[in-house]
Amino acid sequence: MLTAHQWIEALGLEAHVEGGYFRRTFQADHRPRIRTPDGDRYTLTSIHYLLTHWSPVGHWHLNRSDILHFHHQGEPITYHLLHPDGRHSTAVLGPNPGQGQLLTLPVPGGVWKASHLTTGDHALISEAVAPGFDYADMTLGRPDELIARFPAHAELIHRYCRPTQPHTTVTS
């Protein structure tokens, strides 16, 4: 089994603004782009994404697009989801379905998401995003805004928000 550092080097991963490490692996540039209210997007993009023991949290963020997460290697990742209706749900993406872990986790666009390495050294996953990912479609969570919207989940929001966030929307 490769270490987290070996995965970063082997896959050419870079630090991600939401936490962890990533690299885009595919964009459907062989197809016409999809028109969205926020501009044209690829029909599909995908990334490798790695959480490590020194960067174990994918901080609160919202994507407009639907995302499928696929576990590849390493430890499980726990996902916290805040739905538009105020509901909180959790799911564990990991290698052991016999323990209730999912190999694939769909997260619809418009659902706030935070994740953390459940145990161990690292977890390697992939994400497929449709319409394709664009930084203009991602909003990083700010504690004050999220707590105003989801007051029942204040402790959870504080636990997984980035320590400092000068802007809500990330631009490329």
Tell me what you see in this structure.
Residues 6-140 form the DUF985 domain. This is Cupin domain-containing protein. The structure is a single chain. The chain is mostly beta strands and 172 residues long. The strands form 3 sheets. The protein has a 6-stranded antiparallel beta sheet with strand order 1-2-5-12-7-10, covered by helices on one side. Strand 3 (34-36) and strand 4 (39-41) form a beta hairpin. Helix content is 13%, strand content 42%. It has one domain (19-27, 40-160): Jelly Rolls (Sandwich). The longest helix is centred in the N-terminal third of the chain and has 8 residues, at 4-11. The radius of gyration is 16 Å and the shape is globular. The protein has 3 helices and 13 strands; from the N terminus they run αβββββββββββββαα.
* CATH level 1 class label: Mainly Beta
Strand content: 35-45%
Q: What is the assigned CATH homologous superfamily? A: Jelly Rolls
Strand-pairing-aware structural class: mainly beta
CA distance, first residue to last residue: 34 Å
The oligomerization state is: single chain
What is the residue-averaged pLDDT?
Answer: 94
Instruction: Indicate the CATH topology.
Output: Jelly Rolls
Total DSSP E strands: 13
Q: Can you tell me the CATH architecture?
A: Sandwich
| Helical stretch tally | 3
Pfam families: Cupin_5
Organism: Streptomyces caledonius
Protein name: Cupin domain-containing protein
